[in-house]
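To illustrate the input format used throughout this study, we show a single complete record. The first block contains the structure-token representation of the backbone; no residue identities are included at this stage. The design step must infer an amino acid for every position from geometry alone.
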């Protein structure tokens, strides 16, 4: 995956991009303001002129993550078809790599930074609600069956969020050498396909990598 960062021209953006790289390499708790300033070859005072402390850097990084995720969601809202859902997974998984530390060190982050935790909890609910909206759309189009019991699809939406959000963590815990995101996509679709109607199956062309071939 080719990961790119935003404009490096300003000192503030250089600080943010360098912080992300160091957090990804060493882990959130193992990187200090001095580490970031040393990497940039500037004084800690110069850095704190732009960012008061580590939490202010994290706040800006978090806002960047949310902005990029919301942009992906807004693209899917235009045509929430199976093919568009499948295609949006790749940039979403690239985002996980780009901000790897945030997803791998998520528990440490929310414990140490309660204000970020509050924002993130709200955004998690937004993500789950968004997934549920896509399921409801597919049901309304006749591509997915009505839920067999109340709350079934709400639980499915939560399961999809868990699967994608913690895929990297479980791969690392299992000692896998790469994140195998293609398997994450297959696992996600395996949750969905048993609930497809005949119409949904016809619209859901499956290849060996579960890429969606047809629009609704």
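Output of the design step:
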């Amino acid at each position: 995956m080719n990961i790119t960062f935003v404009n490096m021209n300003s000192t503030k953006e250089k600080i943010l991009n360098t912080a992300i790289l160091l957090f990804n390499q060493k882990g959130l708790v193992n990187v200090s303001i001095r580490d970031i300033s040393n990497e940039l070859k500037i004084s800690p005072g110069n850095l704190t002129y732009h960012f008061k402390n580590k939490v202010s850097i994290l706040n800006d990084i978090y806002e960047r993550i949310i902005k990029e995720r919301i942009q992906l969601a807004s693209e899917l809202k235009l045509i929430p078809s199976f093919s568009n859902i499948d295609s949006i997974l790749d940039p979403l998984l690239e985002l996980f790599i780009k901000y790897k530390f945030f997803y791998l060190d998520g528990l440490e982050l929310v414990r140490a930074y309660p204000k970020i935790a509050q924002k993130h909890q709200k955004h998690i609910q937004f993500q789950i609600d968004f997934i549920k909206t896509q399921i409801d759309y597919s049901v309304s189009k006749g591509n997915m069956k009505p839920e067999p019991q109340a709350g079934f699809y709400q639980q499915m939406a939560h399961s999809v969020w868990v699967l994608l959000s913690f895929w990297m963590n479980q791969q690392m815990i299992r000692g896998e050498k790469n994140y195998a995101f293609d398997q994450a996509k297959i696992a996600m679709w395996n949750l969905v396909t048993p609930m497809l109607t005949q119409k949904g199956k016809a619209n859901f062309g499956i290849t060996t990598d579960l890429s969606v071939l047809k629009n609704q």
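Structural context for interpreting the output: Confidence is low (pLDDT under 50) at residues 1-8, 206-216. Residues 114-140 form the longest helix (27 residues).
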